[in-house]
Amino acid sequence: MESTDWTHWPAAPDMLRGLCCGTGVITVDLLLGTAGETVTFKTSLKPTAEQFLAVTWSINGSNIITSTSADVIGEDYKNRIHLDKSTGSLQLTHLTERDSGEYELIIIPYGAGQIQGAAKLEVYFRVPRPTMACPTAKLIEDRNSIELTCNVDGSVSSRMWTKDGTHLVSGDRYKFHDGGRVLSISPVKRTDTGQFLCNVSNPISFETTLCSLTVNYGPDKPTISQFPAAVEEEEMVTLTCSADSFPKAIFTWIFKDRKTYGPLYHLQQLEEHHLGRYTCTARNAVSGQEASEVHTLSDTSTPISGSMYVMVGSVLTLVGLRLV
Known about the structure:
The protein is mainly β.
């Protein structure tokens, strides 16, 4: 066959000037595709009235389409590609993971040198929603340890755990196992109450599942307050017992072998036999734990002692004598 004399071809159109060997020809170097969907390899070439002499797309060295006066299409690409013969752009539909690879474009235009471009395509399935089983037993602070497992069918690029929106990292009580699939918490604390989220992702999608934890704790040591703080006989007084606990603590008062229930101990009128030590015990019905505190109730008035009576009487006698 007689060789073509390229020197007699027309000058290259403006839109082809400076384009060679892939520089700016394919607009994106890396494309991410979703299995079952469509992706388009766009070129930076503008349409011209005159078609190219030849356009070839290949993947990993295998022909996808070669378009000259006729089209030669690879067996795996029939009915799922569309070639824009005026720009060289290629659309690929019904993507599968087998479509991942290195794509090469070769264009032979009229009156100009060969144009080449390359791009990489990575095809991913959308990640399915993961599953996570929450503990069914009641959790008690410092008594239980748990493992949360984030399961997902298929491969994922990453897993990320959060607690109430805060990213979790491995630490004293939090440990990650099996590539981040398992989160162990040992022991559980009251601060672990809340929502734990597991986020799985790949470059094109992400899904999340959650587990809501409730940690029972307490009671902490009770606090007893008295109102009014200073009280005298025949006045009203109320003692209040409180303790941090979940669920809320049940309170019991003991005074001189007498037992009463509830956070308040109320005396309508303070009398001498009411004075003494009051013990408040807080109990958590779930954990079975108890904590107690003692409060001494006393008459804050200052009684006059016997010696004081004598002194006051002597003073009054002297005053009386001076007045006579």
